[in-house]
Amino acid sequence: MDLKIHEVARLLQVDGDEVARWIREKGLPAHELHDQFHINSVELQEWALAHGVRFPPELMAVNRAAGPAADLVAALERGGMHRDVAGTSTDEVLAAVVKLPGVPAAIDRGLLLELLRAREMLASTGLGGGIAVPHPRSPIVLDVAAPPTMLLCFLRQPVDFGAIDGRPVWALFLLLSPTVPDHLRMLSQLSYALHDTPVRSLLERRAPLDALLARLAELPAMAPGSRKR
C-alpha cells in the first residue's frame, strides 16, 4: 500500500513539511508519480523503526488484510527468550541466532541467514540504544496459516551493528513473518513497545520473559481491540 505525504503526516502526527524533509535529508524511501511523492507502507515502517520515529497505535490499522492478526505477545511466546548468544561480529551473531530452537522448523536456516545478511547490507537493523531488529527484507512465506514468530536474544557481549547512534547491540529481536500484513503489524507493535520506559527497563535488566510479556499485554497497542480487523 502506498501513502501520500499528507497521509504519512497524519499517521505519524507530524507536519507534511517534516515528511518532505525526511525524504530529502533522512533517506525516507519514496517515489514520485504525477508530481506527488508516494511512500510504501512497508518501507515507511522499516525506516521509522530504524530512525526511532514513534508509531501511534492507529498506524496498525494500515494494511489490514485477511488472515490472523499478528500479536507481539504470542509471537514472543513462540520464539522465546535466548540468553548468552555468542558472536563478536554481526555476521557471527546472525549465524548463531538462526540456529536457535525458537526458529520455526519449516524455515531453511541457511536461506534465512543469507536473507538476514542481505538485509543488513542494505541498512543496519540496529535501532540505537543497544537494540537491533534483524529480519528478512521480505517476509518468509511458509504457509498462510503460519503465525509470526519473534525471538528475543541477549548477546554474550555487545556487538557493533552499525546502529544509527553508534552504540553496540546487546539485545536483538529476530522477526519472522509469513505475510506482508503480519510483518507490518509486528513492526508497528514492536516500535510502539520499545518506546515504553518500563519495557526498556525490563530489557536492560534482562528480566524473565513472563515479566516482559505481562508488561507488553498492558500497552494500548497490544490491547485486544487493536487486533480486530
> Which CATH class of the largest domain is shown?
Alpha Beta
- Ranges where pLDDT stays below 50 over 5 or more residues in a row are 61-70, 223-229
- Which percent bin holds the helix content? 25-40%
Whole-angstrom Rg: 17 Å
**What structural class results from the helix and strand content?**
alpha/beta
Annotation field: number of helices:
9
- End-to-end CA span: 17 Å
* Rough outline: globular
Task: Describe the 3D structure.
The protein has 229 residues and is of the alpha/beta class. It folds into two domains: 2-53, Multidrug-efflux Transporter Regulator, Chain: A, Domain 2; 72-227, Mannitol-specific EII, Chain A (3-Layer(aba) Sandwich). It is 40% helix and 17% strand. The protein is built from nine helices and eight strands. The protein has helices at residues 5-12, 16-25, 41-50, 72-79, 90-97, 109-122, 180-194, 197-204, 209-218, and strands at residues 2-4, 31-33, 36-40, 81-85, 126-128, 131-132, 149-159, 169-176. The chain has a five-stranded mixed β-sheet with strand order 4-7-8-6-5. Strands 1-3-2 form a three-stranded antiparallel β-sheet. A hairpin with a 2-residue loop joins strand 5 and strand 6 (131-132). The radius of gyration is 17 Å and the shape is globular. Residues 61-70 and 223-229 have low confidence and may be disordered.
